[in-house]
Amino acid sequence: MRREPLALARLLGGLVVLFTMLTWAGPQPRADAAVGATLTIHNRICPAEFTGPDYFGTCHGTPPGIAFEFTLAGPETRTGTLDTAGNATFSDLLLGTYEVSGGPPGDFTRLTVFCASASDLGTSYPVTVNDSTFTIDLTSGSDVICDYYNTPEGGRGETGSLTIYKSTCPVGYTGDDFFADCYPNATANVTFTLALEGGGVLGTSKTDANGFAFFENLDGAYIVEEDIPGEFATATAYCTAGGVAVPIGFAGDNSRFRIDVDASQDIRCDYYNIPFDLRGETPTAVPTVAPPAPTAAPAATTAPVTTLPSTGTHPTGGGHASSALLPVTAALALLGSWFGFATLRRRAPR
């Protein structure tokens, strides 16, 4: 009987030892797991074919002017969009190695990257630059700023641009002289989105106080879309480059158009928006309340109804009333004759 408590105690002790060993041998959290890193990208555009050496002095004052997207791929994936200054900041990143991509399409730009710690801008932070991306290892407490320079190249030494002038026509406008009737109505704070024809948004631009939106560093086929919903308005546009018309193609619902921009072109598009009349006015051909029936309407019948002309001033006509009294008049006359004849008989001389 004494062996049973002893065996039970040994079993419990073994379980405690096993649990302790498993806890000790299991994966331990990294000491720096709670410490995030920060990466800020300054995207800038250099002059065509620029080769340095003063990238900061030559290029840092020229942000791309387009809200390009950047993607960080590594321990986690993050996507950010450049602000109006051409910067994008990624905060509280998990520690590890990231591949950074984004900015203007890499098929016609050369990438140059310089990185430094925010607390020591004079000391470079190590990165590896590839054709159109770069990799960086973010350690505990890292706060790194990377100047991301794109240099146009390819022998042409230039890139195209697209300027949009936005104006609004009168509600329900149906004329055809857009310049005279609509051009003076410049419209501010309207956002246009520029996307590659094959897919992928390149950026957005909002019209300024004079109605202008701008896209630069272009070379290819693009889709331009206004942020006003298509069911509330329609649009038309006229585009030129150097005084020569540039063909465009509107989508079926007139909410966006396709345009080719060559690296040698500076294209200007006058974009006219025509708001629909949304006041809810409809024709009155079908009244909401049925009108009263005509007072002289004939009763429903399966036979044709012929209306005869009336000779009186009243709709029923005076002649119709006298005809209705003829039987009564005849009966009274007959009764009067009978009464008179009977009276004469009673008064005959004896």
Describe this protein's structure.
This protein has 350 residues and is of the alpha+beta class. Among the domains are: 37-152, Immunoglobulin-like, CATH 2.60.40; 160-275, Sandwich (Immunoglobulin-like). The protein is 17% helix and 37% strand. The protein contains 5 helices and 20 strands. The strands form 4 sheets. The chain has a 5-stranded mixed β-sheet with strand order 4-1-10-6-7. The protein has a 5-stranded antiparallel β-sheet with strand order 3-2-5-9-8, with no helix packed on it. A hairpin with a 3-residue loop joins strand 8 and strand 9 (133-138). The longest helix is centred in the N-terminal third of the chain and has 23 residues, at 3-25. It is elongated and about 105 Å long. The protein starts with a helix and ends with a helix. Mean pLDDT is 74; it is low at 24-34, 280-326, 328-333 and 335-350.
Short characterization:
By secondary structure, this protein is an alpha+beta fold. It is built from 5 helices and 20 strands.
Which structural traits does this protein have?
Immunoglobulin-like, disordered C terminus, about 350 residues, elongated, 5-stranded antiparallel beta sheet, 5-stranded mixed beta sheet, single chain, 20 strands, alpha+beta, 5 helices
Distance between the termini: 165 Å
Number of helices: 5
Strand order of the largest sheet: 4-1-10-6-7
Q: Could you say which structural class the secondary elements and strand pairing correspond to? A: alpha+beta
Assign the CATH topology of the domain at 37-152.
Answer: Immunoglobulin-like
Average pLDDT taken over every residue? 74
